[in-house]
Amino acid sequence: MPSLGNFRLRTYVRAWARILRAHQAPHPALRGLLARTRTGAGMDTRAARLLAAWSAADPPVPGSAVALALETASRMRDDAQRHRTDIVVSGPYSDEVPVRLTSSVIIEVIRASRTSLLVVSFAAFGVTEVVHELARAVRRGVRVDLVLEGNSGEGGALRGGSAASDAFEQLRPLAGFWTWADRPMAGSSVPALHAKVVAADEDIALLGSANLTDRALAHNLEIGVVLRDPDTVRRLVGHFRSLMRPEAGPLRPAK
Length: 255
Prior knowledge:
Helix 1 packs antiparallel against helix 4 (63-82), helix 2 (29-35) packs antiparallel against helix 3 and helix 5 runs parallel beside helix 6. The model is unreliable at 1-5 (pLDDT under 50). This protein has 255 residues and is an alpha/beta fold. It has 8 helices and 10 strands. The protein has an 8-stranded mixed β-sheet, sandwiched between helices. A two-stranded parallel ribbon has the order 3-8. It is elongated, with a radius of gyration of 25 Å.
């Protein structure tokens, strides 16, 4: 999910690189040229720092070399951003991490999907905005698979009459509904389909403790991580896809 901040950074890097390549050595007039690229606040300070570093280079380097170094640093930053891991929270938060609310991140992940969405949850209730965004994803051609826990009458671990799939009823028959069938007993209890995952394509995934309920996304103390490493996300999605295979997988289409 590219951010507006990353776009602005790339914009001023390109503008500065063009200016730097036209100069063999630093001089005071360059500070004004760089600052007037109109690419955001604080450009004068950034220009001054760049020129100070360039002037201190020993041996001296031409502007083309400075431009190349700036572009290389920008590409490395972009690559790091694409593979970074973020922490997301519900409920109370602290100063230890930038605040990313679970509810807003789920919407971002859904909107980032181009071909497929995998949604896994134990419980689900309400979450009108999530259901709306999933419906929008289906309309733009995204395959949506919902892997959800059933109630005790369906062989699941949810107590009471409601199954997690009830929250997404308006998506039938637009999305695929899956549940864990023929699960072995764990002593006297039923093992739970307890994972919580929202994965867009094989590029980005949210893993966390929060179920897809209004209370979990807004009020409970929950925590999760956003993965952007394609290799990791591919293995994660592949695990669930393998469990869906008709000939072997324990995940079966829900009735």
